[in-house]
Amino acid sequence: MLLQGKTALVTGASRGIGAEIAAALASHGAVVIVGYYSRQDAAERTVERIRASGGRARAHRADVRSASEAAAMVEDAVEHYGSIDIVVNNALSPYSFSPSARRTAWEQEWDDYREQLEGSVHGAYNVCKAAMPHMQKQSSGRIINIVTNLIDFPVVPYHDYTTAKSALLGYTRNLAAELGRFGITVNALAPGLTQGTDSSRDTKEDVRRDIIRLTPLQRLAVPQDIAGAAVLLASDLAGFITGQCLRVDGGLVMG
Amino acid sequence: MRPESAAIIRDVLQYIERYGNSAADSPAAERDFGALALQLFAFQCEHNAAYRNYAKIKRKLPGQLHSWREIPPMPIQGFKRSALSCEPPEEALAVFTTSGTTNPELRGRQYHPTFDVWDASMRTGFRRFVMGSVPRLRTLVISPAEDLNANSSLSRYLSQAIRFFGTDGSGTYFRHDGLAADELIAGLQDCERSGEPVLLLGATFAYVPLLDRLQELDVRFRLAPGSRILDTGGFKGQSREVPMDWLYGQFEERFGVPRSGCVNMYGMTELCSQYYDDTLASGKPTTLKRGPAWLRPLVLDPHTLLPAPDGQVGVLAHIDLANWNSCVAILTEDLGVMRDGGFELLGRIGGAEARGCSLAVEQFIRSNEGNA
Amino acid sequence: MTAPGRGEGDMNKAIKQEPLQVQAYFLPPGIEADVTVAARFDTPDGPAELLVPALNEDKLRSIADELKRRREEYLASLTTADVVERIAAAAERWLDPAYPHRQLAERLLPGLTGYAADSIRLQLKRYMRTFRKKELLRFIGEELDDPLMLDEFRPRKSGGFSRAYGPELIFHVFSGNVPGVSLWSLAMGLVARSAQLGKTSLAEPLMAVLFARSLAEIDPRLAEAIAIVPWKGGSRELESAAIASADAVVVYGGGGTVESVRAIVPAGKRFVAYGPKASVALIGREALTPDRLNGTVARLAADIAHYDQQSCMSPHCVYVEEGGSVDARSFAAYAAAELGRLQLRWPRSALTDSEAYAIHDVRNRYWLEEAEGGGAAVYASPGGTDWTVIYRDVPGFDVSPLNRTLVVYRCRSLEDDAVPALASCGREGLLQTCGVAVHPQRLFGMAERLGRIGANRLCPLGTMLQAKAGWHHDGRFNLIDLLRFADIERGTEDDAEQYDPDFE
């Protein structure tokens, strides 16, 4: 039980990678706030799944792009569990990874970028801002921002999405530099293409095959891979790791 | 009273009734104790904001606990700061306050919306540890009872002892102007003559001047076999300090009550139940304190405030199911050690002295008082 | 009964190491004493034992007599320059990392005092530098316009001549909270050309002994006028005997110690007490800019961590002004995190049950206030009592239970809020060092206000435990308080001329 007695908030935790991270944190003893925006049914399923295996969780609806809603979600966690130890910023504006349907650079509108920046960066910013005082209070905290390995290796150039995630990585490193003095670590997790998630459903077989061919571990990521890395970064094992971007992509990107 | 309170009271009374006489800890008593303690804690967190907020800061809210041993004990200084009551404090039937300071603002307060649980606890514990199989005794009380102090848990305890267990000739001998020693002596002589066993009750420090007086008058009693003496609370600077062995020796010499007929009670305003030593119940003199099944001590490591292993000296905390309206767990400033299922009381934990020339708390307080 | 096999016996022997025996006393030659083991403690090289002499009134009196005799024979005839030279030479040895006595101190003190080895090493080194010749000369020059007054009658600017005399024998009562705190007092006593009888605390009896040995290496005859003996404080018999033999008494310690000694010093005997004092830190908003913040917090935290706040120069609390890049609340969080880091670097000593509980008690008090919605917050090490920072939103002053327990008071203005909060402590004569971090334009105004209420020393954060040569210890002199002066009044020397038969 690496996370016994800890309280974790995972945004975008109703489905996919977020849900898997929530379940993994709970299985290591953390109490988890399952943050969601639109899919209440899925969020409830995540909570049920955690409870069924003996963990503790509660769902909380919030649009993290709204400062007040993000703050209310953090306060809800503190009210119920005394404080907040772990934040995983996984929420983003809806996005489909379809190599064929994606917009090319000359088709992208600035609003596309704006939307992704709102979801990825503004959302993470709002949640972190609300969580910081509580983490300061304990001289400890773990912030984990989910980015992508497309930042390093744009196999498919999803301009708006990857640009926003790059910004989130910049935010992560600056936050790490500032919050280290309070004993708070801030890291990014960069999954490769992850199978079995709604977002990756439209990624065609040929792209998958190409990625697998270039990946030393010879497969795509599954949500459990990402969740395992999240548990590591959330735990005391990673107490002296901050400002890093941990790629969980089977070695596709190195360095 | 809110329905949830009534329901909790019902549950506690049921527990007291069920396990009131169980001498040893059964697994069932332990299991039910744990469940009820956690239930009480959840109830108190729901209706007592001060306790809930404290528990929240300590990150020990009801949902976060696995065992009753993890319930955050309320430090007794908390009883001085806030009205720790689930029911509205202003509707309380009585408020018991701690002694020891002249400023009523600085006294610890325990609110009693009803005495149902308090009485059941007192009566059941008293029967087990003081009366045994004897239903009633002529009970003589030498410390202020309820009529003189409506805000003292000890006073109520003494008065209830007479009500629950006293015979007709029982009475209180402490008046507005102090102990009515002559009346008490007459009463004791009466008992001695009639051969009726006596139960003497009072604060530990109240016996010292009484024994001095008896020595002055050169009076000795041979009280009837089966007579008992209960003392409680220690000396608290109210009388000169004497060793307990001397006191018990005097009880035998002046009253004819042997050590095996004496019992020491340990109670606090912040608790609704009492601990006793097992001397009367077991017939074997001991200073180890035991509680009834709904009152359990924990010895906490002074460094971590987590439960310490048996045999290690630490700070005492108590979990008292009868504290349904305030805080089910309290943290005292007393030192103790667990042994053979009971605990030895080792006095108050001392203040820390600075090791050298840095200003110490005590010194600063002294110099400020000198100023005032 | 079967005898243990050879191998087994050997193994037991190997495990059971003979303790290192350390003489925790220093006596003049010719004085013999029975020795007993007073304390056992651990060192990195195995267990050690402190040996102390068995003392009684007569023994102590004979030690004192011997000290006085040897002083008369030698020390009294040395000049100020001689004495300074010798003390500085001893200190120079200590500034060599390979010096055996220094290495011994570095090995023994951590186990003996509980303080972190690296912290002791650092602090001892810094401390020894204050005994360099230049520092000693600065010190004497600070108090005596003409240091040669300690050697002979010297002309005065106002005419006439004066000479200073030190006591024949000084009896020191040292405290054990800060290693080596005794050395300065010994050095001053030697400069005054007095024999030294030092009573050390069993909490730290070593440094005085080791330094006396260093002096003996430089000049054995000088060191013959020094005796260092530990005994448990409060022994009326021994203390009275020592006081009767001495003509000056110097006491370091808490209120109880100072008062108990003061009570038995006859009126008219020179008595100098360094009693209990509290120190604080004051941080202006200008020290809380993003670029200054890290340094400010680190320096304050070091002042808290060294010697676990047990020095009277260690801050009990800090006043943090509003308007910087962090508010006082975040400052408290930051300081707590810094103390957490220092716990890895300089671990806090183990505490007694009472010391630990005192910290929990204070934490609980402010947790309860926080729970009530009051303006307090507690930043505490998880589990034990390694560090505690308490934030309070109204300036005040409370004595810390120490051992790395810091109160952070938020204030709108240091001048208007912090100084008044300290006034009553100052008026009681209990306020000593103020570590300050403020703009130059504010410094003198602050100093004026703090000085007026009784503060004794303003210094930079991070150096609170390292008083500089020449400081007015607890607001007084170091040397002058020990001396008496003899004057040849103006005109006397002229008048004397007429008694020269050759006078016209």
From TrEMBL, chain A:
<dbReference type="Pfam" id="PF13561">
    <property type="entry name" value="adh_short_C2"/>
</dbReference>
<protein>
    <submittedName>
        <fullName>3-oxoacyl-ACP reductase</fullName>
    </submittedName>
</protein>
<dbReference type="InterPro" id="IPR050259">
    <property type="entry name" value="SDR"/>
</dbReference>
<dbReference type="InterPro" id="IPR036291">
    <property type="entry name" value="NAD(P)-bd_dom_sf"/>
</dbReference>
<dbReference type="InterPro" id="IPR002347">
    <property type="entry name" value="SDR_fam"/>
</dbReference>
<comment type="similarity">
    <text>Belongs to the short-chain dehydrogenases/reductases (SDR) family.</text>
</comment>
From TrEMBL, chain B:
<dbReference type="Pfam" id="PF04443">
    <property type="entry name" value="LuxE"/>
</dbReference>
<protein>
    <recommendedName>
        <fullName>Acyl-protein synthetase LuxE domain-containing protein</fullName>
    </recommendedName>
</protein>
<dbReference type="InterPro" id="IPR007534">
    <property type="entry name" value="LuxE"/>
</dbReference>
<feature type="domain" description="Acyl-protein synthetase LuxE">
    <location>
        <begin position="36"/>
        <end position="363"/>
    </location>
</feature>
<dbReference type="InterPro" id="IPR042099">
    <property type="entry name" value="ANL_N_sf"/>
</dbReference>
